Amino acid sequence: MKIACIQVDIHYGDHKKNYEHIENKIREAVVQHQPDTIVLPELWDTGYDLTRLDEISDKNGERAKHWLSSLSKELDINIVGGSIAYRDENEVFNTSLTYNRNGEEIATYSKAHLITLMEEEKYISPGKNNALFMIDSTLSTLAICYDIRFPEWIRAPFLKGAKVLFVPAEWPIQRQSHWRALLIARAIENQCYVVACNRVGSDPKNTFAGQSLIIDPWGDIIAEGSVHDEEIITAEILPELVDEVRVKVPVFNDRRRDLY
Ligand SMILES: NC(=O)CCC(=O)C(=O)O
One of this protein's Pfam families, by short name (predicted)? Predict the structure, then answer.
């Protein structure tokens, strides 16, 4: 499975511009790289314009669902749709929607750990369930940005056999070293691919770190974005490499289930 991460800048609170910009980037990725799966960053529709979410969030995700479904079908690709500001009757969630090549929704995940440092919990409600889904016959899971600091949360779907962790993010530059270290650690401890798509650019409060990463199950970086520029990074994922690493270093078998 060939993966492409679309590392972009995001127009603050302007979903119209973001849709247009990101659709152009997806089409460019398809022409230049012929990926099987495309990954977008966190809150790519609105950015962290939290105080205006009542006005700009996507009611029942309908805007994003329609767009993701028709684009994935037309272009014959899977889209891990980063995340959007998703509003139901009473609450707003930071929600990721994933579509397959037939234009069908195959996963929904709402960020479980909201970052108090960015006051996310004041405007967004936390999700409660993790995600486990098949993309082109590879069992995969997803975490959104701050979630990667909580290894016990990430672990659960790997105990059920997941092989790939997708991570849409808006990770600020001040904690760039954490971004790298945490993603590599999650790949090594779960012996999985990590596909992490971060944004670049700034909003009124933060400058973001770019450096989207694709990491193999040995913990080696196989594709990396720059810190400041928009970029499409790509890599090939080999699910059989996950099995090889799990046989070579059998940490899943060696866990002390009697102790924890
Ligand atoms: N958007 C986020 O969740 C940012 C996470 C972050 O900055 C951190 O964990 O540090």
Answer: CN_hydrolase
Is 172 a pocket residue for ligand 1 (Cβ < 6 Å)? yes
pLDDT in tens, the chain (260 residues): 999 999 999 999 999 999 999 999 999 999 999 999 999 999 999 999 999 999 999 999 999 999 999 999 999 999 999 999 999 999 999 999 999 999 999 999 999 999 999 999 999 999 999 999 999 999 999 999 999 999 999 999 999 999 999 999 999 999 999 999 999 999 999 999 999 999 999 999 999 999 999 999 999 999 999 999 999 999 999 999 999 999 999 999 999 999 99
Superfamily of domain 2-254: Carbon-nitrogen hydrolase (3.60.110.10)
Q: Which atom of ligand 1 is nearest to the CA of 42?
A: 1
Hey, is 19 helix, strand or coil?
Answer: helix
Indicate if ipTM > 0.90: yes
For residue 67 and ligand 1, the question of a CB distance below 6 A is answered with no
E runs forming strands in 35-155? 37-39, 58-59, 78-80, 84-87, 92-99, 105-110, 133-135, 138-142
Q: Give phi and psi for 22, each to the nearest 5.
A: -70, -35
Q: Residue 113 CA: which ligand 1 atom is closest?
A: 3
CA of 123 to the centre of ligand 1 (A): 15
The two most distant CA atoms of the chain are separated, in Å, by 53
Give the whole-angstrom CA distance, residue 54 versus residue 92: 8
State the CB neighbour count (10 A cutoff) for residue 68: 22
48, 118, 174, 207: which to mutate for ligand 1, most atoms within 8 A of CB?
Answer: 118
3-state helix, strand, coil in the chain (%, to 5): 35, 25, 40
